Amino acid sequence: MKRKVNLKFIDYSDGFQSKWPIRDLIEKNFIINEAGRPDYVVNLGHVYKHYWYDDCIKILIDQECTSCDFNQHDYIVGFDDLTFGDRYLRIPLFARWPTWSRYLDRTP
Q1: How far is CA 78 from CA 4, 7, 44, in A?
Q2: Which residue of 22, 76, 78, 88 shows the fewest CB atoms closer than 10 Å?
Q3: Predicted confidence (pLDDT) at residue 69 exceeds the cutoff of 70
Q4: What contacts 92, CB < 8 A, 6 or more positions away?
Q5: pLDDT tens digits for 12-49?
Q6: How far is 16 from 34, CA to CA, in rounded Å?
């Protein structure tokens, strides 16, 4: 049985959050309840709305032109090659899009 998690996606453009692959990954194991008082906040880091949420775990999905700041976020998913214990997950930029796997299956 899936556990329910209070989650809030912020800094996403309209309609974009439902297309973001991270949501699909979360929904495989959890039922997402988009709560006003979330336990987890997931953001892209373009706007600083994450400052409005103090009593939750903040997860940054790092973009090309931003830098990681572990003083502002508890966990970061990024494409930089760095190590920060279990608080950082590296996913190459190309792997963030649903069609990336077809390039691995190509034969020369």
Answers
A1: 26, 20, 10
A2: 22
A3: yes
A4: 79
A5: 665 555 556 677 778 889 999 987 789 998 887 767 77
A6: 15
Can you tell me whether residue 73 is helix, strand or coil? coil
Determine the 3-state secondary structure of 42 from DSSP. strand
Q: What percent of the chain has pLDDT over 70?
A: 69
Query: Residue holding tokens 């090659």?
Result: 81
β-bridge pairing 57-61 and 40-43: parallel
Cα separation, 85 vs 81, whole angstroms: 13
* DSSP H or E segment with residue 4: strand 3-10
CB 49 within 8 A of CB 26: no
Give yes or no for a contact between 43 and 11, defined as CB atoms under 8 angstroms apart. yes
Say what the pLDDT of residue 79 is.
Answer: 80
Per the structure block, which two tokens stand in for 32? Answer: 């997402």
What are the phi and psi torsion angles at 11 (to 5°)?
A: 65, 20
